[in-house]
Amino acid sequence: MIFEREGNSTIVYQENIALLKFAENLKAAYEKLKNDHIIVNLFSFSRLSSDEILEFLELSNQHRKANKSFVLVTDKVSFDEVPDAISLVPTIQEAMDLIEMEDIERDLEL
User: Fold this and answer.
1) What is the pLDDT of residues 8-45, one digit of tens each?
2) SS3 letters across 34-92
3) Helices 19-28 and 57-65 meet at what angle, rounded to 10?
4) 40 and 68 Cβ atoms separated by less than 8 Å
5) Does residue 79 surpass a pLDDT of 90?
6) CA 83/CA 17 separation, integer angstroms
7) Residue 47 banded pLDDT, cuts 50, 70, 90
8) For range 34-59, the mean pLDDT
9) 3-class DSSP assignment, residue 8
10) Most buried of 45, 76, 95, 104 (most Cβ within 10 A)?
């Protein structure tokens, strides 16, 4: 896994491994990331299904309970195909924008 820190967010990139293994590695590395907003870049996967995206649901729920954003980035699955508990956007810029909006909502206690 590759970690790229931008402000109060960390973008996580995958290095040529299966999605399930990537999700396991991300869970194992979570302690290092838990204080940042997390953006998971899934563009290196040529195919993804909504079922595979659900592998991140537990970690997403855990992170959101700590008042941090957890956003998956891919254009292979539509956000309509996944539960509302998972934030899914097609670009890194949209992930950054979503985090900014969620930060504002948290500041306003909405």
Assistant:
1) 999 999 877 788 899 999 999 999 999 999 999 999 88
2) CCCEEEEECCCCCCCCHHHHHHHHHHHHHHHHCCCCEEEECCCCCHHHCCCCCEEECCH
3) 30
4) no
5) no
6) 25
7) confident
8) 92
9) coil
10) 95
Strands 9-13 and 2-6: antiparallel
- CB contact at 8 A, 3 and 39: no
DSSP secondary structure letter of residue 16: S
Q: What is the pLDDT of residue 17?
A: 79
pTM for the predicted model, two decimal places: 0.92
Contacts of 88 (CB under 8 A, 6+ apart): 53, 71, 72, 73, 74, 77, 78, 79, 82
Q: How many CB atoms lie within 10 A of CB 78?
A: 11
Homologous superfamily of 2-107: STAS domain (3.30.750.24)
- Domains of the chain, by residue range, sit at 2-107
Burial class (CB in 10 A: 0-12, 13-18, 19+), 48: middle
